[in-house]
Amino acid sequence: MSRMAQVIVLARYEDEVMEPLTRPDEARTWNGCFVQIPWFVGGWYIEFGRWNGRRGVLKDLESLPWNEPACVQVMLHDEDDDLFGLWMFSGEVLVEVDIPGIQRVHIAAPPGDADPGFLVRTGVGRGEERHSPEHVQDPRACW
Asked: For residue 59, what are the contacts with CB-CB under 8 A and spacing of at least 6?
């Protein structure tokens, strides 16, 4: 199944820390390599063309020996999102940061692969009313 997604990592002066994720590694659960943003100090990106080729990328980012984890920002965008979501460290875990006027909508868990839900701007009729009760949401991590 095709499902485009992009990840941007912003972490100033963390080139050495990010370097392992800029090289191919068959042991990773996700496909591809991060590419440094050439005009930016401490920026990398990757684009995923398939839904099942990205699981584990957040865990791999969490496991890196960051010099300043509090300054790391991870921006995730799934093709159904209205905008990028922001993830930052809380302790040793990357968590999604609430953005005013934005809601992650979860629908009932689909069979097969994990579903991240989608980010919508609230109050403009973009789907926030489709939010499912927590007991039917997909608890599996897709990133």
From this structure: none
